[in-house]
Amino acid sequence: VHGAEVVRVSLADYPLPLMDEDLERDRGIPENAMRLGRVLAECDAMVVCTPEYNGSLPPLLKNTLDWLSRIKRDGGKPLKPYEGKIAALCSSSDGNFGGNYAIQHLRQVLIKCRVEMITPQVLVPRAAEAFDADGQFKDERVRHQMTALAETLIDRVKLLSRRSEQ
After folding, report:
1. What does the alpha-carbon distance between residue 137 and residue 6 come to, in Å, rounded to a whole number?
2. Residue 165 pLDDT
3. What is the CA radius of gyration of the chain?
4. pTM higher than 0.85, yes or no?
5. From residue 143, how far is each of 122, 135, 136, 138, 154 by CA, in Å?
């Protein structure tokens, strides 16, 4: 996509227990959180897409973000999945506001995790009707917003990469 290598992640592939610091103390960080943390640590950026449930994030996403925030080491090596990460945010809802409340909550959580975010975001209203048979956005405006989001994210990664090389 726009010259970037894309790794698609489904949280369903990384089932996790409810985040609980007592559980973490007794059993450590779950292996699925570690697996996902390793994947994320290898990426320069991430696009986080979320539906809106009752004006907020779905519990699965929040739980996963919380577990990943707890990772500091992988065996003897440092591993901080969010360190240096840049994110782009998208949300959807069946209503007309496209998940606006969820994306605000997502932004707050990621700020707390010290993830840098680009300004463009994509809100997908009436999500159940938003895609055609090929999985493409029906709405030209949303298609353009998604393209701008991807281009901005890639440009930001390139800019920061050049700065770190200097």
Report:
1. 19
2. 74
3. 17
4. yes
5. 9, 12, 8, 8, 17
